[in-house]
Amino acid sequence: MDVAIIGAAGACGRQLAGQLLDRRVVPESSTLQLVGHRGGASETELWGLRADLEDAFGDWAPTLELVVDPEQVRADIVVVLAGATVSLDPNQTVDRAELGRRNAVMFEEYARTFAAWERPPVVVVQSNPVELGVHVFAQHLPPHQVLGAAGWSDTLRFRHELAVELGVGRRAVSAAMLGQHGDHAVPAWSMVRVHGLTRHEVEAKVAQVRRGRSLADLPAEIVAARTEVVDLIREGRVQDAYDRTQGLPADLRVAVKPFFTSFTSGRTTEAVTAHAAADLVAAVVECRWQAVPAQVADPDRWGGLTAPLAVPVVLGPNGWLSTVPVDLADDERAALQAADAAVASSIRSVLDGR
Question: What predicted TM-score, i.e. pTM, was given to this entire model?
Fold first, then answer.
C-alpha cells in the first residue's frame, strides 16, 4: 500500500515519516509521499527530509516521493498532519475556533480532491481540530474510510497514566479515552482492565484513582487545571508547573500534560501524535483487525451521537469496519452526550463563520 503524509515537513509529519520507516510499516515495493506546500520553507525542508530518511533507512525504505500540490497525491492511505496549530507561546491566547476556521479550508481542499478519485483513500486525520477534520472529509468520502487518530493518542496517554498510578507496565492496562480530543474527553472508567487483577480489585483501584470526582465536572476541571499550569509557566515557575501537573488525577494529567509539554519545550507533542497515527496506518497496511478508540462520523450508531467523537471501532484493510458496542456506565453515557453537543456546536460555529 502507498502512504502519503500531508504536512510531512512539520514536526509531527517528520516524526511520523521516521516512525513508519523505522517500523517498516510501508513495504519496500510501495511509495511514501511527503506532501507539503509549493514554494517556501515547506518545499525546501521536504528535500532535506527526504535525503535524511534515505540515509537512515535506505536498506529497506520504499520509494520516497515529494509532493507539493494536492492533485499530485496518489496513495491508498493518507495521514493529515498539516495546517495551523495553536501557538506554543504560553503568553498567547489559545483560539481553537480560529484554528478551526483556518484548517477547515485545508480539509475541504484535500477532501474535494480525494472525492474525485476513482478509488478514494483511507484518510487518517491527526490535525486539529480533529473532529472538524473528520467531519469535513466524511462529507466528501465514504465515512468508513475516514477516522481520527486523536482518540488513540489520548488512549495511549490514559493507559500510561493509569499504569503509573497502579505501578504496572502500560501493556498490562486496557482502557479507552472516548469523546472529544479536548475539554470533553470521556475516560471510560468502566472499561478499565488490568492484567493480573480481578474485576473487584480493578474497581477498587479505579475508585482510588478517581478520588471521588464526577465525570460531569471533568470539563471544568480540565480548564481550571490547564489555566493554573500555564499561568505557572508564564511566571517562569516551570518546576512548580511540572509538580502541579504530576499531582493531578490521572484523567486530568491526560488532558493537561500535553500543554505543559508544548509550552515548556516549544514543540508540540510530536512523538505520541505520530506514534498513534503510525499505529493506525500499520493496522490498515498489515490488514490487522484491531479495535481502537478513534474519531469517526457515524450518526446511526452509538446512541445517536451526531458529532465525530472517539468511540471504539474495528480497523480493517479499508478503514474502519464497525463500532464496538460497550456497556458504559450512566455517567459515561451522559458525558458522551455532553461531548456530542459541544463538538457539534463547535463544528457548526466554525463552518457557519467561514
Answer: 0.95
Over residues 274-308, the pLDDT tens digits come to 999 999 999 999 988 889 999 999 755 667 889 99
Rg (CA), the chain: 20
Q: Which amino acid is at 104?
A: A
**Which CA distances in Å does 141 have to 17, 147, 254, 335?**
25, 11, 31, 29
Q: Strand pairing of 77-80 and 31-35?
A: unpaired
- What span, in angstroms and rounded, lies between the C-alpha atoms of 168 and 230? 30
Task: Kindly report, residue by residue over 307-352, the tens digit of the pLDDT.
Answer: 999 999 999 889 998 888 889 999 999 999 999 999 999 999 999 8
C-alpha 174, offset from chain centre: 18
Cell numbers representing residue 127 in the block: 490535525
pLDDT in tens, 12-21: 999 999 999 9
Q: Which residue type, as a one-letter code, is found at position 63?
A: T
Percent of the chain at pLDDT exceeding 90: 84
Tell me: pLDDT of 353 over 80.
Answer: no
Res 354: pLDDT = 61
For the chain, give percent helix, strand, coil, nearest 5.
55, 15, 30
Domains, the chain, ranges and CATH?
Answer: 3-149 (3.40.50.720), 150-354 (3.90.110.10)
Q: What are the backbone angles phi and psi of residue 268, rounded to the nearest 5°?
A: -70, 170
- Could you tell me which of 100, 78, 90, 101 has the C-alpha nearest to residue 147? 78
Angle at 166 between CA 163 and CA 170, to 5 degrees: 20
- Lookup: cell for 60: 529497506
Amino acid letter, residue 206: V
Angstrom CA distances, 243 to 54, 229, 232, 341, stand at: 41, 9, 11, 34
Joined grid coordinates for residue 168 = 504496572
Strand segments, DSSP code E, in 237-351 are 290-295, 310-316, 319-323
Nearest to 218 by CA among 258, 177, 184: 184
Q: Which helix (H) or strand (E) holds 20?
A: helix 11-22
What span, in angstroms and rounded, lies between the C-alpha atoms of 151 and 180?
A: 8
